[in-house]
Amino acid sequence: MFEQGHTLPWSERLPMPAADTLSDAQRKAAQTLIDGPRKGVFGPFIPLLQSPVLMERIGSLGEYLRFGSQLDARVRELVTCAVAREVGNQFEWLLHAQAAVKAGVSTEAIEALRQGRRAAPLADDEQLALDFTLELVRHHGVSEPTYAAAESHFGKQAVVELSALVGYFAMVCWVMNVAHTPGKAAEGQAGLEAFPL
Fold it and tell me: 73-179: which CATH topology?
């Protein structure tokens, strides 16, 4: 189990409520997730269950960005890993690092990203998306050259979806960082360590 957040002593602040304490709205929101492509209530949806209407709306947005977006799965998964690395979120890192490799991102690139190094080797579309993502997360916008390269390659709709994907994963990572939602690694899987100071 990998801890989230930076306060000590560490404890999960917003764990999954007991089933018999859930309101009707919470039960309905949880069932919507269970019936959808996620098949369960986990990760950011555990703390988000405290606000069931918000949970449903965030869940719907994430469902489109993860499963319906124009972006290739490799690009989506790499971007998600980059956001998780930048904001120090174990849960999304542990889940999406494996998914990125399965989608076709090189193991070497994911490991370099985990260590806080330049991710390589990457396909051209992966490099474009990673440059866009890191610039957006670190500077809260993107330069003209970065924007022009992304629009030329991906198109306008996909650039909007890429921007929203970055924002979506930053948001759910921050919710979990605040809630101290733990991440669970697969056997032998390395989690994130803090960036060197």
Answer: AhpD-like (1.20.1290)
